[in-house]
Design goal:
This protein is α/β, with parallel strands linked by helices. The chain has a single domain, classed as 3-Layer(aba) Sandwich (Rossmann fold). The protein has eleven helices and nine strands. Strands 1-2-3-5-4-6-7-8-9 form a nine-stranded mixed beta sheet, with helices on both faces. A hairpin with a 5-residue loop joins β2 and β3.
Length: about 325
């Protein structure tokens, strides 16, 4: 894939005006308050694994509307805490998989909570375990247009709320230091991490890697790759729905959430990325509110970004901030 977006010097200055609803903050305050008021317990159950240097737990916590969401928790074997924690969100279509698939954070001394993404987990990987018990109006296959008629019904309202409640859940655990919690994720997980950073307070870091779900109005018309193309195909049928669709998406745009995020942040972008074009990533990064922010750029990579190279950068960034 050749480079197709703005040159890097222009990307570094790219701060587009993005549609932002007047009731954005009220919408999210009410959404989170309702879900927290719904209650529900955080249930942590030990699970047997082949691991000898990490203890694994099957976690169920209350997400959107108090609905049960699954996660894996890994902690260093025998650790009594309080530990710094990393809450991680997954890429599009993937589930939480198996508890021993992701060992980098626990091997580095963190409690690691990996959140299942409701309704996903059947496109790749080792599967998911969380249903999305909500219907939807007319939509294109995938998740991008589910409930897109209104922000109250949109699929990512539930997912973003689950993410914030995952942060709440990990902070409630006795082995975790509630003041040293970070969020991370790649692609869809990166977009969710930005939203979690914008909707949560007191996070020690946010680590969005090649994030999805940013600058929708550019992305939908700029790339011919899925998942953004799901919206294109929906609009090609619902020909008069464009304004309504982008109004809904504005409540979930990573740019608007980045404007509110105060946690130190390390982003990444691939300059040849056709899935999450670099201009959409830089739009969120350049609007990110915290002064302590940086971005790693991979000039000859597509959506894979830096992979293990980026994880090493994240680990160093986070270690410098958890003390």
């Amino acid at each position: 894939m050749p480079r197709f977006d703005l040159p890097l010097p222009e990307l570094r200055d790219y701060r587009p005006a993005v549609r932002e609803p007047a009731d954005f903050d009220d919408f999210w305050s009410a959404t989170l308050a309702e879900s927290r008021a719904a209650g529900g317990d955080v249930v942590v159950e030990p699970v047997a694994t082949p691991l000898t240097l990490a203890d694994a737990y099957d976690v169920t916590f209350p997400g959107f509307g108090g609905e049960s969401v699954k996660a894996w928790l890994l902690v260093p074997a025998g650790a009594d805490g309080p530990l710094p924690a990393v809450v991680e969100f997954n890429g599009y279509g993937g589930g939480r998989g198996l508890p021993f698939e992701r060992l980098g954070w626990v091997a580095s001394g963190y409690a690691h909570l990996f959140m299942d993404t409701r309704g996903q987990g059947s496109a790749w990987g080792s599967g998911g375990a969380t249903a999305d018990p909500h219907g939807t109006g007319p939509s294109f296959p995938g998740f991008m247009t589910r409930g897109i008629d209104a922000p109250e019904e949109y699929y990512y309202r539930r997912v973003y709320t689950d993410a914030v409640r995952a942060v709440d859940a990990v902070r409630s655990l006795p082995m975790v230091d509630a003041d040293r919690v970070a969020v991370c994720g790649g692609s869809q997980g990166g977009g969710i991490a930005i939203a979690a950073a914008g909707l949560s307070t007191g996070l020690v870091a946010a680590l969005p890697d090649v994030p999805f779900l940013c600058h929708f109005e550019r992305a939908v018309g700029f790339t011919d790759s899925d998942p953004y193309q799901e919206v294109v195909r929906y609009l090609s049928v619902h020909r008069r729905a464009e304004d309504r669709v982008f109004e809904t998406l504005s409540y979930f745009d990573g740019v608007n959430h980045a404007k509110r995020a105060q946690a130190p942040a390390l982003f990444s972008a691939g300059l040849m990325d056709p899935v999450c074009p670099p201009s959409t990533v830089f739009a969120a990064f350049n609007h990110y509110a915290a002064a302590d922010r940086s971005i790693e750029v991979y000039g000859h990579n597509e959506h894979e970004g830096g992979q293990a190279y980026q994880w090493a950068e994240q680990a160093a960034f986070l270690a410098a901030r958890v003390g």
